[in-house]
Amino acid sequence: MEAIGCREGLALASDLAVRKIRLATDNISVVRNIKGVSKGAYAHIVEEIRARAGGFVCAEFVHEGRASNVDAHNLATSLVYRELGRMVWLLSPPEDVCIAVPRVINQ
Known about the structure:
Strands 1-2 form a two-stranded parallel ribbon. The chain starts with a helix and ends in a 29-residue tail after the last helix. It is globular. The chain contains four helices and two strands; from the N terminus they run H-E-H-H-E-H. It has helices at 2-15, 28-35, 43-53, 70-78, and strands at residues 20-25, 58-63. It has one domain. Helix content is 39%, strand content 11%.
């Protein structure tokens, strides 16, 4: 599931025309498989991630512990009971899923 999440993150970044991306996951095996020679049991997903990453100026995959990934973990577990498909909340995420961060506008 983490590999699929990485693939979906790249798809979203591509849809938003982002040129540089740093994608973090709390699954070290997924990061190793994306960066390394081995592709793991989900090789077809890793192949797709590698191919899609080539379309970015910079695509970096990093491991972060779950402690720094609380919002992503809460979001993932909250989606277990929702309908299948992509969901994007850019301005107002569902309650109790993400921690609100004040928006700063430079003038």
